[in-house]
Design a protein that fits this description.
This protein is of the alpha+beta class. The protein is 25% helix and 29% strand. It is built from 15 helices and 30 strands.
Length: 656
């Protein structure tokens, strides 16, 4: 969705120039600085500490050679950023002035004119602070003190009554993969993506959420929930127009009272064009303008961009077990796709063009779904806008992966606010297909030995916490703020449970982790494969971008830094020996053979899933992309170079 700026939107910190949304609004670019060893250096916007140190030549490229091992000190200390800005008389005259932060990573004290206004502790939430009494016309000083997330996580972990599976990272509401994964480096960074000042008088339009009450080809009956934050009791008039034709669709009146008001506005459309996913039909979008008018000539507008479609997850008992498939506009659709991980471990470097390039490759490969994996991060609005445009459905994990999480009241309240914010934020996107509670947390608890060493009371408490998050807080957020399905955990049953082939979704790691032959893909076909993959090397062109020639060897220290799986090369070598009878000695030959092996593995898997329709109704390859240059399961490497597996899977998905 795209919103007009509020009438008095003041500034967007990371943007050099922001066009005025309305007459009288002011956009200002403000430079940031950060402190390193008692000296101030210019910061980029948006920023993260690693990239700012790099741009000022205070460190080498974190991704080059074995620099990762030399730069762990960065995440172990606190960092300070500062800026100053002015505020116009017009803006200062407004009754309410709110600083709004999103993607503020993670433990941050915010000072405005030497007053502490915020202690943030979650990079996935919006933080909104009233600053009316603190702002002045000139020289407003803003300071951000980023506390080490690594130290904070360890401190919280040591104080907690149990040593939760997943170790320190589970204590934080921060991107989990930044603590390191079997394809990701350990760069525990900090930074800021988005900050703005919003000014308003009697009310502001906080959000507009669309709901479909009825939909067929001849008519759509819609209801918009207009969320109005009011400072006083006042009557308002709400006018809804079609943006393209300017035609008024409805007008209604309401009385708002101080606090949050949910105003329901109903209207209908004739001659409906439905939104379809890639490969089936056109991804038609609608744009509506909502104007809310109050007393004193106050008027605010928001634009909502959405698509009209019915979408359901069909999870019913049948003769083979329990189905798992998506039905779009009344038609069952086989989901072809891949798992998405963050495109850079430093999120400030991911541009809109990066999003477009990768998602265009998804569309071109005949994919109609991506899974946003739960150890990464919620993405910016532009990501979902492009998925809407390209007809790419999104299976979206909440940001929990590979661990058991705290269950104290403060943590649970933090999660509740995060979930409500994110579900509501993404609710108007037709691409959104499913909210999933977590990645492999249930599987780990039940089958990976996480309960070892815990007594019965401890197990009961930890499991109670799991249930509270994944079967209470998250599904309630989904039901309350969206119209799509919720799924507790992916996979429903792991490979250690016989039910994984005939109930729910499955992750197949018999191939790779367990060393089973590629034939396993044909022998153990699930109802929906949400994760399966095989590692390969990036190409020589990419390897030379992050390794010196002297390190182009499987045994070099720098190469080992970029292979995060402890048995990665041993597994690749074993499969090479099985499939081809030999392991190449020449490094260049080894690189090509590893990519050939990956392509062969995924070809076998995708073919098995497609051949098993309609028993199996989904095939999502692990993984689509990389967050840094490495040996991994990716189809497209960090630099955007497509591996042979991409072309192989593309041919299958396009039916060539």
């Amino acid at each position: 969705m795209r919103y007009n700026k509020l009438l008095f939107l003041f500034f967007l910190i990371w943007t050099a120039q922001v066009p005025d949304a309305h007459a009288g609004s002011t956009a200002i670019s403000v430079p940031w600085q950060f402190n390193y060893n008692d000296q101030w250096y210019p910061a980029q916007t948006p920023f993260s500490i690693h990239t700012d140190l790099l741009s000022n030549k205070l460190i080498g490229d974190p991704f080059y050679a074995d620099n990762e091992t030399q730069q762990q000190w960065i995440g172990q200390r606190d960092w300070e950023y500062k800026t100053t800005f002015d505020v116009s008389d017009t803006t200062l005259s407004k009754k309410h002035l709110e600083l709004v932060f999103t993607s503020l990573d993670t433990y941050v004290d915010v000072y405005l004119n030497d007053s502490l206004i915020l202690n943030a502790e979650n990079m996935f939430r919006e933080w909104r602070v009233e600053c009316k009494g603190l702002l002045k016309k000139n020289g407003n000083a803003l300071r951000l003190i980023f506390h080490s997330a690594e130290k904070k996580a360890k401190e919280l972990y040591e104080k907690y009554p149990y040593k939760l599976p997943g170790e320190e990272r589970v204590m934080t509401r921060k991107a989990q993969f930044q603590f390191g994964w079997d394809w990701a480096p350990r760069f525990i960074t900090c930074g800021l993506q988005n900050m703005q000042l919003e000014a308003w008088d009697d009310f502001r339009v906080a959000f507009v959420r669309m709901k479909q009450n009825y939909l067929d080809q001849s008519q759509a009956q819609l209801m918009a929930v207009v969320e109005v934050e009011a400072a006083t009791s006042t009557p308002v008039t709400i006018v809804v127009r079609d943006k393209k034709t300017k035609r008024k669709l409805t007008e209604s009146e309401a009385d708002v009272i101080p606090g949050t008001n949910m105003i329901r506005v109903r209207y209908s459309l004739d001659q409906v064009y439905t939104w379809w996913c890639n490969g089936i039909g056109k991804a038609t979008m609608y744009e509506f303008i909502f104007e809310v008018k109050g007393n004193n000539n106050q008027s605010e507008t928001k634009e909502v961009r959405t698509g009209l479609r019915t979408l359901s997850l069909v999870n019913d008992l049948d003769s083979s077990g329990t189905s798992f498939y998506f039905e779009l506009n009344g038609s069952p659709v086989f989901m072809k796709g891949a798992n998405y991980v963050p495109q850079d471990v430093f999120p400030n470097r991911v541009t809109d063009e990066n999003y477009r390039t990768l998602l265009k490759a998804v569309k071109d490969a005949g994919m109609n779904m991506i899974r946003v994996w739960g150890g990464g991060a919620y993405q910016r609005d532009e990501f979902y806008d492009l998925c809407d445009e390209y007809g790419i459905l999104v299976w979206h994990d909440f940001m929990f992966a590979g661990g058991m999480y705290p269950f104290d009241s403060a943590y649970l309240n933090n999660v509740r606010k995060e979930a409500q914010y994110q579900v509501k934020r993404l609710s108007n996107h037709p691409c959104m297909a499913l909210w999933c509670g977590n990645n492999e947390c249930s599987e780990g608890w039940n089958r990976w030995g996480w309960q070892d060493g815990l007594d019965s009371a401890q197990k009961a408490e930890i499991w109670f916490g799991y249930q509270k998050i994944f079967n209470d807080i998250l599904p309630n957020a989904v039901v309350g703020f969206s119209q799509i399905a919720y799924w507790e955990s992916s996979p429903e049953f792991g490979r250690g449970d016989a039910r994984h082939t005939h109930e729910g979704d499955a992750h197949n790691w018999f191939v790779w982790h367990d060393g089973e032959p590629f034939e396993n893909y044909e022998q153990k076909v699930p109802r929906f494969m949400s994760e399966f993959g095989f590692q390969s090397m990036p190409g020589l062109k990419s390897l030379r971008m992050f390794l010196p020639d002297s390190a182009l060897s499987l045994t070099s220290a720098a190469m080992k830094v970029h292979q995060k799986h402890s048995r990665g090369f041993a597994i690749i070598n074993a499969y090479m020996q099985k499939q081809y009878g030999t392991v190449p000695v020449n490094f260049s030959d080894y690189v090509k053979r590893s990519q050939q092996l990956q392509a062969e593995a995924m070809t076998r898997g995708v073919t098995a899933h497609l051949d098993a329709k309609p028993y199996c109704m989904g095939s999502l390859v692990w993984q689509l992309n990389d967050c840094w240059p490495s040996v991994s399961w990716s189809m497209i490497d960090y630099y955007g170079n497509k591996k042979p597996v991409y072309e192989s899977v593309k041919k299958l998905f396009l039916g060539e």
